[in-house]
Specification:
Shape: globular
Largest sheet: 8 strands, mixed
Bound molecules: flavin-adenine dinucleotide
Structural class: alpha/beta
Number of strands: 21
Length: 436
Amino acid sequence: MSRRDGPIIATTEVIVVGAGISGLAASRELRRRGKYDVIVIEGRDRIGGRIHSDASSFPDVVIDLGAAWIHGMKNNPLVDIAKQCRAKTYRTDDDNIIMYNARGEEMRHDELEDAEGEFLRMLRGAEKYANGKNSDLSLRRALEGSAGTKNLLKPLIRFQLSSYLEYDFGAPASQLSAWYYDDDKEYKGGDALFPDGGYIQLLQHISRGIRIDMNVAVESIEYGKGSGVLIRTNRGTYKAKFAICTLPIGVLQAGDVKFHPPLPDPKIRALHRLGSGLVNKVILSFDACFWPETTQYFGVCHDAPGKYSYFLNAKLFTGRNILVTVALGDHARAVEAQSDRDVQAEVMRILRDVFDANAPDPTRLLVTRWGQEVYSRGSYSYNKVGATRKDFKVAAEPVDGVLFFAGEHTSADYRGSVHGAYLSGIRAAKELWDND
Ligand SMILES: Cc1cc2nc3c(=O)[nH]c(=O)nc-3n(C[C@H](O)[C@H](O)[C@H](O)COP(=O)(O)OP(=O)(O)OC[C@H]3O[C@@H](n4cnc5c(N)ncnc54)[C@H](O)[C@@H]3O)c2cc1C
């Protein structure tokens, strides 16, 4: 018997591929409507996908290795879920920051404020410059064209370009579309994270009562109008009337999962026009705290801005001596090729320059490598040069009335976020329902 003819191990009405927030939101919505039997199949041995609340690497504390913040507390549906499951939230304050120059000297607060004004003006200039062009170009080229390369080298401008903009949008400015990099929406009301127990609490809450088959790796999805869906996995074949596919953009672009027949050409082209971004975190815990305890963030204007310029002081909300920093832009990929020991040496050099030449090595260090995780292959989607909002919408379009799509990369308005992924799951469930 060929593998394609393997035994059918489960038959149901709806299969949801992926137990990230979008897949779980879709499953809950279908169950809430009371009509469908749903099975979620998940390649990993945990739910959450790019939400990974790590409870084992650091003693007595849960650290979010992927998404950590609810972005925008006003009208954000995640806030209600957090309340329902009584997850404690902690408001972070972006203005509670100390900036250091390359020599490790503290900078004045008004220097940063002035630079923030200048950076906004530069972005507006880049927008005007890009709008005057006949075709899309990268944000970096538009900034260089409008503000000049020299201005982009100013330490506080470089810091903001990297630690604010490239972090938010998940890609180097040289890849972001100058026309559309920021044509998404946001909720207002500040940001919050989960000091006790991590983001996973929300997923545990919404997944209650849903059948989730773990360690089931999808290899192919066969679909057809009137014939339903066959999903072939490492464990056997699942049969259903409908499927909701929440495979991440990086996994779809890599072609790890085959579709039979192949997805429509416009969808394939849209998926490849979009960017699959990358952001990595480095988490360090220490025996003692050698940084200002009550400050939320530290920014360091050194020569390689994507390389650990921005530090979150997790002591403020965990009570432990923990710092979290990020690898951004081009460095997000480069860090994945480095050993933990090399990463540690680089981060410690910066911390010793800034805080204490005798600062001890960390007792524990963890480096994420989201690009190498075969079930993620990246952090979040972005508008690459040449991509438009329409591409996110085409990525979301159902195929043949049986195969539906969710995931952060299918949300034109809220791509790259947990709330965008959550809302996309609800949207896909409704599409399925309306179509049945
Ligand atoms: C480092 C980092 C920081 C972030 N920070 C924030 C933040 O602070 N706030 C915020 O709002 N967003 C943040 N995000 C983005 C956010 O995590 C994502 O947008 C969101 O979690 C995506 O959810 P999803 O359901 O679309 O995809 P996923 O969570 O990736 O779910 C897809 C699921 O499919 C599974 N899967 C993949 N391939 C297969 C296969 N072949 N077979 C079976 N299963 C498979 C995966 O294991 C996964 O569980 C961050 C992301 C990263 C990586």
